[in-house]
Every structure is written in structure tokens, then in C-alpha cells.
Amino acid sequence: MADKRMGSIWTPANIVTMVRVALVPLWLLFAELTATTQGDSFSLGAFGVFVGYVLISITDKLDGYLARSRGEVTAFGQFLDPIADKLAVVVALVFLLEVHLTNAWVLLVIVAREFLVSGLRMVVASEGVVVPASNLGKWKTAVTMLAICGLLFVRALPVGQVASVMHIAFDVLMWAAVLLTIWSGVDYFVKCWPYVSKKAN
């Protein structure tokens, strides 16, 4: 029986999620080794960093599709998948901050929202309640990853008007992700408020 429970963890979806977790620090190491300033030519190293993050982002959709299509949604997957998502986003934002392609406020808002949601989840879990991820949260993650991919691509471009315009465009998209982050955090707090107030009493 124990073997069956252990075996249920090793679903294709969970394996993809675990691979994503393992790839994040490897991606950061590669990104750090190729963290050069923009020049007058296209940077293959920076483009490789961009491609690597795109692959990590794709696995976020792949594991969810595998779990649903195969009917193999597991507690382990539900636990690990959001951790993998947060790890991929936060590590990439820290790198973008390091290379001066994003703002410290972006990182602060996104990390603060994750602390808030994690705390709320613990409170409602003590009441035996699971608040499912909303579409706002899914849009927030998708827009954030798209903005990160765009800014990473900008690093590969030669200095010039095209790079400047694309930097502004993806920076605007990143701030849209920040607004979605705040909105989804407030939405989650409102949904959890009945359980938070009950716990406080």
C-alpha cells in the first residue's frame, strides 16, 4: 500500500514540475555567467538565457495539462506546482533587478503578495477549507512570465532604438503584472476574510 502511495507521486506532471524546480538554479547560474552588458551586436549568450526561461515557462503549462488530461492531479503536485512557479518568477526578477532591467518595487510587491497569500492559505487550511486559484491569479502569473521573457529578450538585442522601445513596452507589461498581482492578492484576501475573521474571534 505504501509503495502504491509513493508511486502515485511519480506522475508525468509531477516529474515535469520537479524538473522545473531543478532547472531554475541551473538557469540562474547560466544567466550569471552570461550577464554581460549590451553591445552593438546581438548577444547569443543572452538569447540563450531568454530561451532557457521560455522553456521553464512552458513547463508551467505542460505539467498542468498533463495532470488534468491524465486525471492524475495529486496532493504532491498541488503542493509543489505553486512553489515551482514562485521560484521561477522570483529568481528571474532578482536577476533582472541585478542587471537593471526591472524595479525593486516590482520584486517587493510580488514577494509581499506571495507572503500574504501563503499566510492566508495556512489560516484557511486550519479550517479545513481550500480556496482554489482564481483566474486573476493565473493571469497574473502568465503576464508576469511574459514580461520577464520579454525583458530577457531585450538583453540580447544590440543597443539602439528597437531595444529601447521593446524595453519600454515590456516594462509597461511588467507594471501591468504588478497591478494584477495586487488585484489578485486583494481578491484572495476578500475570499479568505470570513475564515480569517472567524479565526481571530
Features:
disordered N terminus; 201 residues; 82% helix; Four Helix Bundle (Hemerythrin (Met), subunit A); mainly alpha; single chain
Tell me about this structure.
The N and C termini lie far apart (41 Å). The protein has helices spanning 2-9, 12-33, 44-69, 75-98, 104-125, 135-156, 161-200. Helix content is 82%, strand content 0%. The protein has a single domain, classed as Four Helix Bundle (Hemerythrin (Met), subunit A) (Up-down Bundle), CATH 1.20.120. The chain has 201 residues and is mainly α. Mean pLDDT is 83; it is low at 1-7.
By CATH reckoning, the class would read Mainly Alpha
- Unreliable parts: 1-7
Q: If you average the pLDDT, what whole number results?
A: 83
Q: How much β-strand is present in the residues?
A: under 5%
**Would you count the extended β strands for me?**
0
What structural class is derived from the secondary structure elements? Answer: mainly alpha
Shape: globular
Rounded to an integer in angstroms, the radius of gyration calculated over CA atoms is: 19 Å
Biggest sheet overview = none
Number of domains: 1
Q: Terminal Cα separation, in Å?
A: 41 Å
Question: How many alpha or pi helices?
Answer: 7
What is the CATH fold-level name?
Four Helix Bundle (Hemerythrin (Met), subunit A)
The CATH architecture classification is Up-down Bundle
- The succession of helices and strands, N to C, reads HHHHHHH
In helices, the fraction of residues equals: over 70%
